[in-house]
Design brief:
- The complex is a heterodimer.
- By secondary structure, chain A is mainly α.
- Chain A is built from 13 helices and no strands.
- In chain A, helix 5 runs antiparallel to helix 8 and helix 8 packs antiparallel against helix 10.
- The N terminus of chain A is likely disordered.
- By secondary structure, chain B is an alpha/beta fold.
- Chain B folds into 2 domains: 233 residues, P-loop containing nucleotide triphosphate hydrolases (Rossmann fold, 3-Layer(aba) Sandwich); 44 residues.
- A 7-stranded mixed sheet of chain B has the order 5-6-7-3-8-9-14, sandwiched between helices.
- In chain B, helix 2 packs parallel to helix 4 and helix 3 runs antiparallel to helix 4.
- Chain B is globular, with a radius of gyration of 21 Å.
- The chains are: A mainly alpha, B alpha/beta.
- Chain B: GO terms for molecular function: ATP binding; ATP hydrolysis activity.
- Chain B: InterPro entries: AAA+_ATPase, ABC_transporter-like_ATP-bd, ABC_transporter-like_CS, ABC_Transporter_VariousFunc, P-loop_NTPase.
Chain lengths: 314, 313
């Protein structure tokens, strides 16, 4: 036994309000530091890549090539299949590919929330360690939701803004290929993506509280989030009428119907662009409706998570 | 009878995990006065861990009620500490980081005592503050888990199998720390164990659970003194009190009884060892439970009259 004389134990005075607030979220950051750094690195690298795409040497070369081909008399050099057009072809698709990538983020967030944020702590007992250290389960869950939600909103929001700017720039320089995929990407890329990521967080947390184990929670959380996006996607623009006719150059969703200039109207992937497209003015109504719906769903899932936790603990 | 404030008080407490399984705890009514060091004894699967988890507010009882320090377990959260059997800690934090984590979780209540926590964690000098939890041995992890519990300066310390993976020296040191905490601060300690000799020198109160029910409860000495080991030529008759267990010994018979009056003269009466009393009750779950006066829940009317005193204190 240590012979250090024990001090008379008078309880330390309650710390001041500012200090209390300062430490409120510290434990979540302390425990999930690795995830935080991975997220920050992902956002920074993606944002840097977007900036390079937009302002890098390839961007100006592609824009210049496209402008020349449209204003000057066409030569063989302007053929879409020539080597010189390779940069343009890349810019046709990179934007929509990046949107697809970003749309896979919510299930990843859900899997992380289910397995690492909550599931692992329930499985190895560290959640109970926190609950017996002066933090009530409800407050613990609230902190576990708020801190990641702030970072997810900020990071996803930044990427959505950056990508939106990039897509609008490619559209303005007539670098974007029209078609189903572009139509889909155009309407999906907005605040609703942030809402889907937040729904992923909520769904992962609920899955972990229901299954109480890492791997089943990971699967359930990610699949549910993916399924919600899959179910919502076809309905995003369905409640507004399609534009039946779009003359060449007038463009669907505010873009020039570039794909039509190759006369590919009979090809499956460009039918939408040339025949029944959605006008670009539908973007905000569609996005805000979807964002509201997904956020409502997320709130319900969070309420379910609190109910589930409360039913279980004293 | 003077009713001291209770650290734990249960009436008809029961817990069933799923509807189709048998109850883990059934109809437990007991009281643990404050300031005691209490042993919670029972065979594996008896319900010791469930009882501690109920008291720590980690589970909701499915029957009956449990109060902790006169409140519900959730209300008493800031005043109790619990060390689970698996000693859960975040493996990727360092030891110092773990203590900082404990400090932050307790900052709102203003109860954290960094010195007390460090004394337990670094007491024997074998743990480096910068070492990650995942690199520690089982015994060192136990030390850090106990340090978190001590740092909280709880009024009630619930410890599940605290000493199982500690070496004898660490066991002695930590027992000393527990005792001094109980003596200096009046901390009530409940520790579960099935290592009976370990509890004998440390604890002054005892609960024995077997098969989900409370079998024995009360001050250690009182419980032991209420039992007698009789050895004689024949099996003890009805005049000897309640027979807990009897077995043949040589030509005669040895029986552990709870005498209810004068003991009959033709028996050799001895004081049983702690182990004999506990094992007899674990083996014979048909024996009627025995609670001393101090371990019985306070009747409702007295509880009401006792409340103003508690508030004053």
């Amino acid at each position: 036994m240590s012979s250090t004389p024990t001090k008379a134990r008078t309880p330390a005075p309650a710390p001041a309000g500012a200090e209390r607030r300062g430490t409120r979220f510290g434990t979540v950051l302390q425990v999930h530091r690795t995830a935080l750094w991975i997220w920050i690195a992902f956002v920074v690298i993606s944002a840097a890549f977007l900036l390079w795409l937009r302002y890098g040497p390839d961007a100006s070369a592609a824009a210049q090539f496209q402008a020349e081909c449209e204003t000057l008399t066409r030569t063989g050099r302007c053929s879409a299949f020539s080597d010189d057009a390779a940069a343009v072809r890349w810019y046709e698709y990179i934007g929509t590919d990046l949107v697809s990538l970003l749309r896979n983020l919510p299930p990843v967030v859900a899997g992380w929330a289910a397995a690492v944020l909550i599931g692992r702590e329930l499985e190895n007992g560290t959640a109970e360690l926190a609950w017996t250290q002066s933090i009530s389960p409800a407050r613990w869950l609230a902190e576990k939701l708020v801190v990641p939600a702030v970072f997810i909103t900020a990071g996803t929001g930044l990427l959505v803004l950056g990508l939106r700017g990039f897509i609008d720039w490619t559209a303005a320089h007539r670098l974007l290929a029209a078609g189903y995929q572009t139509n889909d990407a155009f309407f999906a890329l907005g605040p609703s993506l942030v809402a889907h990521a937040l729904l992923g967080l909520a769904a992962g947390v609920l899955a972990a509280l229901l299954t109480r184990r890492m791997l089943p929670a990971l699967a359930a959380g990610a699949l549910t989030t993916w399924a919600v996006a899959w179910l919502v996607n076809p309905w995003r623009t369905e409640i507004w009428p399609a534009v039946a006719r779009t003359a060449k150059g007038e463009g669907p969703f505010g873009f020039t119907a570039w794909a039509c200039k190759y006369d590919q109207a009979d090809h499956k992937y460009s039918v939408d662009a040339c025949m029944g497209a959605r006008p670009a003015s539908n973007f905000w109504p569609a996005q805000l409706t979807e964002t509201g719906f997904v956020l409502l769903l997320a709130v319900l899932v969070v309420a379910g998570a609190f109910w589930c936790l409360r039913r279980r603990t004293g | 009878m003077n009713y001291d404030a209770s650290a734990l008080e249960a009436t008809g407490l029961g817990m069933t995990y799923t509807r189709h399984r048998k109850a883990v705890l059934a109809d437990c009514s007991f009281r643990l006065p404050q300031g005691r060091i209490c042993a919670l004894v029972g065979p594996n699967g008896a319900g010791k861990t469930t009882l501690l988890r109920l008291a720590a507010g980690l589970l909701r009882p499915t029957a009956g009620a449990l109060t902790v320090l006169g409140r519900t377990p959730a209300e008493a959260r800031e005043r109790i500490a619990y060390v689970a059997q698996s000693k859960p800690l975040h493996p990727h934090l360092s030891v110092a980081g773990t203590l900082r984590y404990g400090a932050e979780l307790n900052r709102r209540s203003g109860r954290w005592d960094q010195q007390a926590a460090e004394r337990i964690a670094y007491g024997d000098g074998s743990i480096d503050p910068g070492a990650k939890i995942r690199t520690l041995s089982g015994g060192q992890r136990t030390r850090v888990a106990l340090a978190l519990a001590f740092g909280k300066r709880a009024e009630l310390l619930l410890i599940d199998e605290p000493m199982a993976d500690l070496d004898p020296l660490a066991r002695q040191q930590l027992t000393g720390a527990l005792m001094s905490s109980a003596v200096e601060d009046g901390t009530t300690i409940v520790m579960s164990s099935h290592v009976i000799p370990e509890l004998e020198g440390t604890c002054d109160f005892l609960f024995l659970i077997a098969d989900g029910r409370l079998r024995l409860g009360g001050g250690f000495e009182e419980v032991m003194a209420a039992h007698t080991l009789l050895t004689g030529a024949a099996a003890p008759g009805p005049g000897c009190g309640t027979v807990i267990e009897q077995r043949p010994a040589g030509r005669g018979c040895t029986a552990l009884v709870r005498p209810d009056g004068d003991r009959p003269g033709d028996w050799l009466a001895e004081r049983p060892t702690t182990e004999e009393v506990l094992l007899a009750h674990i083996r014979n779950t048909q024996a009627p439970p025995f609670l001393t006066e101090s371990a019985r829940p306070v009747p409702r009317q007295r509880q009401q009259s006792a409340r103003p005193q508690e508030n004053a204190a």
